């Protein structure tokens, strides 16, 4: 049996986005009879470790230097390696590539990544033309978005016809497995400031975030429940009239599900993806988290429109469903396995 290693970032400050999109590719590759080994510090985010373990995949602790990577991958008897990291030194990529076929998942800036195949699954990435490492191939755009089994199992077979005309709209808000930048409480505050009725669920992975979200003063006919990380993400999104999330890898999952998505740009490296997503008309933009922390008034107005206008919610949902077809991981797996 062939064996592929996945070297990705994860941590309380880094979040779990790298792990989740690698899991999508791993599910597809394993479906084709290939064994997967994750190399990452998943233990630092127990929920991420549980997601890998639930799929029956082995996890090895992350190593740092080029020599350590080469030695580890040799010991694991790998046939190829997938990289998904913002933190690795460029020398690691070149050292591993000298001995094994490699695929690297990137977001715009390569950050020193060198690989036989470079995958940028971001919206309109195909319009960019960066200089490539020698003998590399680049796969770019939403055709290569990698979506997990959980999401694909809940994807509607046809686009949403209309937005549900709920008397009290249901809102679901989550910001990755760790909410590393503490967006939840500020979004809860912006929702309350609309003055409109809603029933919201906010995911708070840490006790302090849960306490701050729960402390937001609500107005009449507003309800807010705070929960911990959930493995029922897709079901929650499908039940909601409006989903609020950080701009990032989860954006493409929301669009694939035909969700009415409102995005917050929580960190600088998301700005390009955030702006492109909002410009398509497939997602609403609540702005930069740094601005939301100071003044939520512009976000309040966007949320007020989304809570009060079922037709607008339906339009966004249809546009998103049409952008992401859910087959990107098949195309990336084809490219990866062709290297072996």
Write up what this structure looks like:
With 340 residues, this protein is α/β, with parallel strands linked by helices. It folds into 2 domains: 3-147 and 325-337, Rossmann fold, CATH 3.40.50; 152-323, Glycogen Phosphorylase B (Rossmann fold, 3-Layer(aba) Sandwich), CATH 3.40.50. Helices cover 38% and strands 19% of the residues. The strands form 2 sheets. A 7-stranded parallel β-sheet has the order 3-2-1-4-5-6-7, with helices on both faces. It has a 6-stranded parallel β-sheet with strand order 10-9-8-11-12-13, sandwiched between helices. Strand 11, helix 9 (249-256) and strand 12 form a beta-alpha-beta unit. Helix 3 packs parallel to helix 4 (90-97) and helix 6 (184-193) packs parallel to helix 7. It is globular, with a radius of gyration of 20 Å. The model has no long low-confidence stretch (mean pLDDT 93).
Name the features.
alpha/beta; 340 residues; six-stranded parallel β-sheet; Rossmann fold; 2 domains
